[in-house]
Amino acid sequence: xxxxxxxxxETDAGAAPPPGCPAHxxxxxxxxxxxxxxxxxxxxxxxxxxRAEHGPVAPVLLHGDVPAWLVLGxxxxxxxxxxxxxxxxxPRRWRHLHDGTVTPDNPxxxxxxxxxxxxxxxxxxxxxxxxxxxxxxxxxxxxxxxRHINRYSNRLVxxxxxxxxxxxxxxxxxxxxxxxxxxxxxxxxEYSERMVQAARDMIKGTETAIASNAYVMERLVxxxxxxxxxxxxxxxxxxxxxxxxxxxxxxxxxxxxxxIAAYETxxxxxxxxxxxxxxxxxxxxxxxxxxxxxxEAVEQTLWDEPPFTAMFGRWATGDCDLGGQRIxxxxxxxxxxxxxxxxxxxxxxxxxSMQGNRAHLxxxxxxxxxxxxxxxxxxxxxxxxxxxxxxxxxxxAVEEDELTWTSSLMxxxxxxLPAEFAPRPPEEITAKLIxxxxxxxxxxxxxxxxxxxxxxxPVGAAVPGPAAGTAGHENGTGHGAGAQGASSAPAxxxxxxxxxxxxxxxxxxxxxGTAAPDGARMRDSLWGSxxxxxxxx
Length: 537
Hints:
Elements: E1 32-33, H1 37-41, H2 43-54, E2 57-62, E3 66-71, H3 74-81, E4 87-88, H4 95-98, H5 109-112, H6 123-138, H7 142-160, E5 165-167, H8 168-173, H9 176-185, H10 193-201, H11 209-229, H12 235-241, H13 248-279, H14 281-288, H15 294-304, E6 311-316, E7 320-322, E8 325-327, E9 332-335, H16 337-341, H17 373-390, E10 395-396, E11 405-407, E12 412-414, E13 418-420, E14 432-435, E15 449-452, H18 518-535
Helix pairs in contact: 7-9, 7-17, 9-13, 10-11, 11-13, 12-13, 13-14, 13-15, 13-17
């Protein structure tokens, strides 16, 4: 197959079609652009055009018509990500940085500018830096994180539950991951709308991306200075104190890496899971029938709508062949995550269930595979579960074809996800987050966060049924799954409240005031205690 090389295209500027031409997605030399209207409006369609024209590796143009290679094949992406000796993560190898093709004001500069962090390192230096990140992530108490996620989720729901309608992107998906991640790294007081929007903006390649990056870094540098002076039990302190002996710049850059990568991927993941749950008959029917858990729905979404569509970049350490293309030393390559997940070689039927199959590339692969993916999964499935438990009658408020997306080189996310539900009053969040004393978890490995909850009601005590329109809420917490008030059934076609991520729903308990056999009462008490533990109450 004959393909136009992106490097031949550099000298053929006259071949670009005029504005308004149907082929305006083509740049110099007929090479397709990964930016502009075509790439932003239909990235998946663009990937399939490139696959049909060039096979598993295609020449493309980045912002400023800078040439690169987009890797579309699943096998080719795995080879590239698993072979750092051939495909380095160090952007200083990019030959177009040295010949002036890429300028410092390029909108992608926050992504490709070299920084002292593991994402831009190979070999021993990568192992040193990556080890500090993974060791610090391992200190997080994941059960405590789920409790934290549940609390923040319910706080967000309380802000709109009386309205009867909500944009699930702007009021939930965009905010929950930032609330959780800022708590994890040690700066919950920095949570704000500006931080949320800066985090989304800095990876889009917009004109304001550089300013957004500067805003985030200013806050992280201040955090590092505080933690040098006043250590705490948080991710920032663990990085500072790690035997890898990070300097301040290394700490702040790795905090940015973890914060932004976790935030963007998880915000997109939550929105995509909610869209599929609300619109896809396969998900609705199977979740309603109890055959698909939310974690399984999350994994299917990671195949179909990965939160990062592509990951920039890799740089060839020498001349080589990949997917039938001749790659030159210093060429830039892009991990085509969404394209690889749709590769017909590994997925000939896109409608087939991928349940139990984690071979997707949603978190990349090889030595640079995302180390915090389990936290992202936890935020998504726990957050969505808490939302559906509070609003079991949640439904899409517009026709599905009215939904719109915005896309960039690396991600594609919903602009809005309007939903409706029966209005209900806010519910008290009884669990109180109490910081653990410094050093309390030393030697234990876990327990860095502690949650104290209100004492459960005595066994056999009368429990008031939910108010109209609030079926499926536990007394005082709003996280039950139809345990009390069995007569308050969800509206026809409504999604049932989930009992917890990956858990089987409990059967109905005895109505208030009805005597239950001791054995049944004990089973209900134990099950209620288990559910309260899972949900953090």
